[in-house]
Amino acid sequence: MDTLWAMFKLNKCPTRGDSQSLAFEFNMTVKQIKQWFRKRRKRYNKDMYKQKYKKRSKRSYPKSPFCRGAPDAKICIFEVGQKKAKVDEFPPCGQIVSDRYVQPFSEAPEAAHICSSKYMVKSCGKDGFHIRVRLHPFHIIYIKVLSCAEADRFQKGMPGAFGKPQGTVARAHTGHVTVSICTKLKDEWLIEVLYRAKFKFPGCQKLHNSKKWGFTKFNVDGFEDMVTEKPLIPDGCGVKYIPTHGPLEKWWALHS
User: Fold this and answer.
1) How many other CB atoms are there within 10 angstroms of residue 224's CB atom?
2) Please, what sign has the CA dihedral across residues 117, 118, 123, 125?
3) Could you tell me which residues are beta bridge partners of residue 238?
């Protein structure tokens, strides 16, 4: 079997002469040799397709004057719902967190925000939620393209080929928040919409009920006290933090 695996690493599609020699060496028929190579090719193509989402380059390759002809990202809208809502309207926040390093295509966040927005519009209306997509597809991936006979057999083994731009992907590391949803509904509805949206992303995604107030970085426990004491000033769907140090004149103007 070691000879078969060595032959498979050198050539995924053996010729008829190679198949006959292998069949004579292992006391098998030519049909059995072809079936063995066909099964290994299917498994190899599946593994390569999975690695496409996990393959990490050393640096990002964004669109630039040196990289022209890249297709535009499919997602154009990163916020849906009541975007002008104040910070007091939607305190609970649910998040989808990536559990491993993945590179989803730009179609994935687009499908996730369409799926979640449709469900939320049916549940609480178009002004009862605020969805924010945290992934931005900027990294361009390339594909090696051949235009010769039987090109599908030599597609992934061409040495030294730079290829053509295939599409844009986003980079999500372990623990990266992909989608955040703020609403007034109960936890059951919030978990349901996150559960539907997480299947649009590759890899392993986890649902997280955030302890923060809305889209802010402050906890729910002491948020209202901080607003009344004025270290926090509401600013749209977020807040401004006023530090205790600085000119005394600003502090007196704020607390007068």
Assistant:
1) 13
2) positive
3) 235
Closest CA to 54 of 237, 161, 204, 238: 204
> Measured between alpha carbons, how far is residue 138 from residues 75, 157, 175, 205 in Å?
11, 27, 19, 21
Q: Which residues contact 154 (CB under 8 A, 6 or more apart)?
A: 146, 148
Q: What is the DSSP string of 176-212?
A: -EEEEEEESS-HHHHHHHHHHHGGGSSS-EEEEE--B
Q: What's the predicted TM-score (pTM) here? A: 0.67
Which helix (H) or strand (E) segment holds residue 47: the answer is helix 30-54
User: Residue 177 has what pLDDT?
Assistant: 93
Other Cβ atoms within 10 Å of 59 Cβ, number: 6
Residue 89 pLDDT exceeds 60: yes
Average pLDDT over residues 7-15: 78
Q: Among all chains, which residue has been given the structure tokens 């731009």?
A: 165
Structure tokens at 133: 């997509």
Cα 169 to Cα 151: distance, rounded to the nearest angstrom:
25
In whole angstroms, give the CA distance from residue 26 to residue 36.
Answer: 12
DSSP state of 62: -
Residue 179 amino acid letter: V
